[in-house]
Amino acid sequence: MVWRIDRLGRSLIDVLNTVKSLQQAGISVHSVSNEIDPSTKTGRMMLGMLATLAE
Fold it and tell me: In which domain, by residue range, is 24 found?
């Protein structure tokens, strides 16, 4: 669990790589403040949008 998805990295690539690495290790990611679930299509879309805005 993370407070906000943009806390996982400093850039879009960092965030996406971190989420991918965690998922490959069997760890699910959940954002508390914006309730993003990257295991769904909508969650992946929102992950990309929010990570881009955070950058």
Answer: 5-54
